[in-house]
Write a structure and sequence with these properties.
The chain has 15 helices and 2 strands. It is mainly alpha-helical. Helix 5 runs antiparallel to helix 13 and helix 8 packs antiparallel against helix 9. The chain has a single domain, classed as Orthogonal Bundle (Ammonium transporter fold), CATH 1.10.3430.10. The chain is globular. A hairpin with a 4-residue loop joins strand 1 and strand 2. Helix content is 68%, strand content 1%.
């Protein structure tokens, strides 16, 4: 072969073979679904700084950075744990009787480098999307015991909680061989995290609050939010991010995505309006904090239901959840527990209402399909499945959290020292101030 011919052959191989390989890989990928899932992953990640702003604006000035650090620390800790073992425990095949999953291919994500899921997206994308749920769930818990925990104790707590509580719950509800996924004829419905995220976080927050006790001087001294403007901005970021949270859970870019996105918007709006209507009637004023609290109540309630209800059902769920959450927030002081930022009052109560009451608003098309697949299916049967799943999530998260708290207390303290609590988390644990103000309170 002449030299000039060899050069053309080599150039032909260089530029042709890679394109053939790439074309073969791309043929297995649904580019539309992949693009939406990449966007959804970014939207859910946006919720974590949104949550930091929401919580950070509600605490006292001396604790704003410490409170925001709870969310940001979760981004680091939970991502590393999810990469090492979280994904394997959540989505690997059953081990130990189905307590959690495991696959060495998922350990350190070592075996999914070129894996494409049946939905047409790279498994890496699904892994990172689900990893954002693992981040925000323990960050939600921090709102319950804000202003009174040590930073080291908190970091240890969320690491243990993620491994022992979140990963198994995630496996039970969303893995193909999880027992709640296969409970009854059609499984427990949890489209985007009513039980896995909100109920588990809310209940765990309540248990932690009861275990740790109230903040110093609570409720005798006023503890006003330091920056409601920041809280409202944070709530806006949460609302935007929730479209990825719910619509992304369709793992597609199609009709189910549009359905989930629509009911998310409707439930949030219904929740916000319901809260300020109740507040205006009950207290004579409609507050900004009340409106964003209602938005969250509606978003929490629609999370498990986003894939199965129509907009009319979303309206009703948003209203019902807001009524329940408002009642919980009003009565927490009378019941004697200091849920600082209403993690249980919003996420726990809203999650329970959404997970159970979605049964009454399942779209007819879904009901017909479920009945044809199951042979015989009734709303009452599904209601029983939903209620049982909720009870299991409450019991597992509550008991497991209590055990974790007890173990941490034997090793180090989750509760801040009295000096740290009075001085403020920002300066005591981080050596910084959120604002350049002289008065730390």
């Amino acid at each position: 072969m002449k030299p000039i011919v060899r050069i053309f052959v080599i150039f032909g191989l260089v530029f042709t073979l890679p394109s053939q390989i790439i074309a073969q890989d791309i043929s297995d990928i649904d580019s539309g679904a992949t693009s939406w899932m990449l966007t959804s992953t970014a939207l859910v990640l946006l919720m974590i700084p949104g949550l930091a702003m929401f919580y950070g604006g509600l605490v006292r000035t001396k604790n704003v950075l410490g409170t925001m650090m709870h969310s940001f620390a979760a981004m680091g800790i939970m991502t590393v744990l999810w990469t090492i073992c979280g994904y394997a425990m959540a989505f690997g095949p059953n081990v130990l009787g189905g307590w959690f999953g495991w696959s060495w291919d998922y350990f350190l994500l070592s075996g999914i480098d070129d894996s494409i899921l049946p939905e047409g997206i790279p498994e890496y994308v699904f892994t990172m999307f689900q990893g954002k749920f693992a981040i925000i769930t323990p960050a939600l818990i921090a709102g319950a015991f804000a202003e009174r925990v040590s930073f080291k104790g908190y970091c240890i707590f969320i690491a243990l909680w993620g491994i022992i509580i979140y990963n198994p719950l995630c496996h039970w509800v969303w893995a193909g061989d999880g027992f709640l996924f296969n409970l009854g004829a059609n499984g427990a419905i949890d489209f985007a995290g009513g039980t896995v995220v909100h109920i588990s976080a809310g209940v765990s927050g309540l248990v932690a609050v009861l275990y740790l006790g109230a903040r110093k001087s609570h409720p005798h001294l006023p503890m006003q939010p330091n920056n409601l403007v920041m809280t409202m901005i944070g709530a806006g970021l949460l609302w935007v991010g929730w479209f990825g949270f719910n619509a992304g859970s369709s793992i597609a870019s199609g009709l189910s995505t549009a359905q989930a996105l629509t009911v998310t918007q409707v439930a949030a709006a219904a929740g916000g309006l319901t809260w300020i209507i109740i507040e205006g009637w009950h207290q004579g004023k409609a507050t900004a904090l009340g409106f964003v609290s209602g938005i969250l109540a509606g978003l929490v309630a629609i999370t498990p239901a986003a894939g199965v209800v129509q907009p009319s059902g979303a309206l009703i769920l948003g209203i019902l959840a807001t009524i329940g959450c408002y009642t919980a927030v009003i009565y927490k002081n009378k019941l004697g527990y200091d849920d600082t930022l209403d993690a249980f009052g919003i996420h726990g109560i809203g999650g329970v209402i959404g997970a159970i009451f979605l049964t009454f608003f399942i779209r007819e098309a879904w009901m017909s399909e479920a009945a044809s697949m199951a042979g015989s299916w009734t709303m009452l049967q599904q209601l029983g499945v939903q209620a049982l799943a909720v009870l299991i999530a409450i019991a597992y998260a509550g008991i497991g959290t209590l055990v974790i708290l007890f173990v941490i207390d034997r090793v180090t303290k989750l509760r801040s020292s009295q000096e740290g609590e009075m001085k403020g988390l920002d300066s005591y644990y981080h050596g910084e101030k959120g604002y350049g103000m002289i008065n730390p309170s």
